[in-house]
Amino acid sequence: MIIASFIGSGSMHFADKRTLRIVWLGLLSSVWLLSACDDANHSTPTTPAAGVSTKPNILLLLADDLGHNDLGINNVDETVQTPNMDRLALAGTRFTRFYTESTCSPSRAALLMGRYAARAGFRPIARGIPPEVVTLPEALRKQGYATHHVGKWHLGSTVKEAWPLAQGFDTSFGFLNQWSLHDPSAKAPYSYPSYFDPWLKIDNHPRQRFEGHLTDLLADRTIELIEQGEATEPWFIYHAFFAPHTPIEPAARFMSEFPDTPAGKFKALLNQLDSNVGRIVESLRRTGQFDNTIVILASDNGGINQAFDNNFPYYGKKGTYWEGGVRVPLVIHWPQQFGSGSVNDTKVTIFDIYPTLMNLISADNTNEALDGISFANAKHNDVFQQRDLFWESFIWHLHVYGTLSADNVRLFHEFNGNDHLLDLSLDPTGNTELLEDRDARIEELRVKYENWRSEIRKVDTTFSRQGPNGRGMLTGDNFQRSPGLAGYTFAIGITPSSQPHPGASVQIVAQQPGLLNISMDRTRRLTVEIDGQTLRSGEIAPDRCHSIVVTAFFSRHLSAIASRRPRIPIVRLLVNGSQVDLKHSTQTMPTDHRLDTPTYIGQSAREDRFFHGKLSLPEIYNQELVGQVLGFPEAEELHSVVCPTS
Are 582 and 615 in contact (CB under 8 A)? Predict the structure, then answer.
């Protein structure tokens, strides 16, 4: 009856066509579910057998750069073929206001931490998730889960402590980042990726070449894990596809079904992704685990809008804080909690998935310091509607941020200083500037952002006092406390003594051997040694507090793109809020073998040299100071923190 009324109408608008397609998909989905039930009644039971864990398995499927418009259920273009993902959506719950970060690494960090990615320095580059953070797989392992990582990691490659097995996974099969998919014998340590015959890692072993297409190989591994999973121990599989990320390289068997155009190639790769989602879900049904498995399908950020508009109707693309860059598909199939065939428009985020899963398995998660909130009962929780959301990126001295207020007003501050103010209640696509009370709303949201940023960038360290006048030792959060990769700021207040002191001619302000050394000579001039660079100050007056700030952004050869960028200034020395020296990056790979070394304050590591004066408690941020970009005196504010009475 409904279908007939649409067909008989003669012409259809966008919404009508999409509704018709959803109706057809709904009928197919019903057949799919009935087929699953029929298979269950006549072959393998879908309910757990005796002795099998009553806790549900968890299958988390993360697509890469999959935009809202890349799902057939959201797209009126019938050449976008994603029948398996569409059926999963129609049989589960679609969240239509699901927000992520705007690029790969921060979204993955937020997903596994249940926290803002910027807390670990991902803006978007960072050394990795700090070992002190209890990740989602670690929390699940405490609940008796076997934990498996398959696919793209992109959460740190320079130290093993950042790799999957050190972050809570029992097994890992995949690649640390896309730049490592190529032959490791090539001259460059990181090169352009390819889907064909990739070089992949099993656990922590050296990479080896696998014949075939990356998307198929990863699905094969997950299916193997599912087939091994019929045991008393529940399992968690985090399957991170590379598709449909560039380069757009579908297998020939899929490419043959589409035109040889940029759009055709992308749709073929999308169809291959969908086919493998179908294979994985089918393996759950075949092994009788489908009804006892929470299935989540999500994307890490919006599409890139090269072949076509991946994010329609939302404006923007990956790497931006327009709606299209951060508003992406989320599907959850777990009828026991979310029902079947429902649509949920609650404003939820990627860092909400962690607490939601802990809630669904009835685990106590009250002791974890999470930013996320469980959306298991999202429509009945006003907290989701009342909270503000924040985004931030900073790379190569380009600073960008975004906010989304509780009343659905988005502020997007671009690196060139332009502000965009958008009322999503009036235009949900985010393509219409809000002009009423513009300046006042921008200032209101900017202040909220600055307050959030001031709290979120602080590195959590432990100071152990070991002597008078501020002498001691900093430990904790080795990844962010130690300079060498991405953003870093070290600040301390020093009050040199005017009285001469016998002994060493050099006084130590701070020292982390091999990584940071701040010293003062007999003429009260500072020398800072960091990352192979040496910075110096003029004479420092005695008997009053001076703020000493070392701030940097360490740009490295972590990708084929980064290796082509020019040398840029990365390290600055500021005294009392003014820059006194600056050095440039070598862009060589960081040396990370001393990250667990304490940061000594007012003394050398050997305790044979000391600072003869007073020192404040140091501050460490996981970000370079960007006050000049933001337009407020950040260095001066930091001076008042470390020298509060000067």
Answer: no
Report pLDDT for 365. Answer: 66
In angstroms, the Cα distances linking 536 to 387, 495, 506, 518 are 45, 17, 14, 10
Please give the share of the chain, as a percent, with pLDDT higher than 90. 71
Tell me which residues of the chain have a pLDDT lower than 50.
1-17, 20, 22-24, 27-51, 628-632
Q: What local confidence, expressed as pLDDT, does residue 132 receive?
A: 94
Quick check: 613 and 494 in contact, CB under 8 A? yes
The encoded tokens of residue 504 equal 């060493």
Q: pLDDT of 157-199, one tens digit each? A: 989 999 999 999 999 999 999 989 988 776 555 568 999 999 9
CB 197 within 8 A of CB 210: yes
CA neighbours within 13 Å on the CB side: how many for 404?
24
* Domain range 462-642, CATH architecture: Sandwich (2.60)
Look up the pTM and report it: 0.90
One-letter identity of residue 109: A
Q: For the chain, what are the domain ranges?
A: 2-387, 391-456, 462-642
Angle at alpha carbon of residue 126, lines to 123 and 131, rounded to 5°: 125
Contacts 24+ apart (CB under 8 A), 199-206: 199/175, 200/173, 200/174, 200/175, 201/172, 201/173, 201/174, 201/175, 201/176, 202/172, 202/173, 203/165, 203/171, 203/172, 203/173, 204/160, 204/163, 204/165, 204/172
- φ, ψ (nearest 5 deg) of residue 191: -140, 180
pLDDT of residue 554: 84
Please state, as a whole number, how many other Cβ atoms lie within 10 Å of the Cβ of residue 246. 16
Q: Could you tell me which CATH number the domain at 2-387 has?
A: 3.40.720.10
DSSP 135-159: -HHHHHHHTT-EEEEEEE--S--SS
Domains 2-387 and 462-642 share a fold: no
